[in-house]
Amino acid sequence: MAQLIADKRDVDFVLYEQLGAEHFEKTARYKGQNRKMFDLLLKEARNFAIKEILPLNEEGDRIGLKFENNQVQVPESFHRVYKLFREAEYISMSEDPEVGGQGLPVLVTQAALEYLLGADFAFSAFGFATHGAAKMIEIFGTEKQKQLYLRNMYSGRWAGTMVLTEAEAGSDVGALTTSAVKNDDGTYSITGNKIFITCGDHNVTENIIHPVLARIEGAPAGTRGISLFIVPKIWVNDDGTLGEPNDVVCTGIEEKLGLHASPTCQLAFGGKGKCRGVLLGEENKGMRVMFHMMNEARLGVGALGLCNASCAYLYALNYARERV
Ligand SMILES: Cc1cc2nc3c(=O)[nH]c(=O)nc-3n(C[C@H](O)[C@H](O)[C@H](O)COP(=O)(O)OP(=O)(O)OC[C@H]3O[C@@H](n4cnc5c(N)ncnc54)[C@H](O)[C@@H]3O)c2cc1C
Q1: How far apart are the two ends of the chain, measured CA to CA in Å?
Q2: pLDDT (tens digit, 9 = 90+) per residue, 176-233?
Q3: Whose CA is nearest to atom 32 of ligand 1?
Q4: Are residues 167 and 282 in the same domain?
């Protein structure tokens, strides 16, 4: 069979001959896991990527997103495949079983990601933005926050984003003007406008959890005064049920070269004064927390570059071989 996304022999070489992934079974943490399990994961990820994700490119490119009444709709074909993606637990492959993960080594799951990301980034981005947001809650969240969000996010029931950029605050994130005012019940009222938010709105999941950078009233200027808040699209009640819409409105989507099915959104928080968030980590220390997700995103973007280059090369190679 022609290689379409990543060359299987190449992946196996890097994993086992170069990096020695078989040695994981000798470590205490991964005891009981072996090459047979890793190969099975990679085989399933590869088959799923080729059979289910790769065909989404056509509808994603030709039909793309619909933006109506401040809501983003993804191509119809995404819904069935996302359900299968969730069932296969691809978002939480390397997470602890206690939070709903499969507990596999990141080295191995990264190889599986090469197939999944390489097949169609517009589709896979829904899951991988979610992972980074959930990971911050796992590391920095309170017990209550972990209980409310982790399983719902790692399972892909709810999606996640990262919300930093504003029209006048890109590289210079310390210039942001989104504000947070503490309420009597311990929540914060959030007000501000953000741009360029990947998967900022869509109808793939029933809720979207936004980690939002904002400045608490009276906090210092620059990055030293930035805090991070968990701001759900639909409010999450203390018992885990969904409440009212949380005044997070998508005001537009960007045109992205070639990525027509990936919603990069402009979001308005608290336009009606009714957007609430809860603090993640400590006041004024939001950048430290957000860097965990930014670093994961940087590695993801690197992996994506590799996947796209690999895919493009293999398509060209197959074409050259078949052409008389
Ligand atoms: C496809 C896409 C998806 C994105 N997804 C997200 C997301 O999910 N969440 C989110 O919050 N943001 C997202 N972003 C925004 C991204 O983080 C910003 O684009 C980035 O922070 C750069 O900001 P900017 O585009 O305003 O560029 P600017 O900050 O205006 O920079 C423009 C140019 O000026 C240079 N520059 C800037 N400052 C200086 C300086 N002080 N000295 C010298 N040179 C300088 C930069 O290197 C760059 O070349 C996304 C962007 C894109 C394109």
Answers
A1: 19
A2: 999 999 999 999 999 999 999 999 999 999 999 999 999 999 999 999 999 999 999 9
A3: 171
A4: yes
Residues 233, 249: contact at Cβ < 8 Å? no
Looking at the fold, whether 110 and 186 belong to one and the same domain comes out as: no
Ligand 1: residues with CB < 6 A are 161-165, 170-172, 196-198, 256, 264
Cβ of 104: how many Cβ atoms within 10 Å? 19
Are residues 125 and 210 both part of a single domain? Answer: no
CA of 254 to the centre of ligand 1 (A): 14
Decide if 1 is inside a domain: no
SS3 at position 40: helix
Q: What confidence tens digit (pLDDT) does each residue in 25-70 have?
A: 999 999 999 999 999 999 999 999 999 999 999 999 999 999 999 9
CATH number of the domain to which 62 belongs: 1.10.540.10
Instruction: Find the domain containing 71 and state its range.
Output: 8-156+292-322
Provide the whole-model pTM: 0.96
Is the domain of 101 the same as that of 127? yes
**3 within some domain:** no
Residue 290 DSSP one-character state? H
C-alpha to C-alpha distance for 123 and 262, rounded to whole angstroms: 7
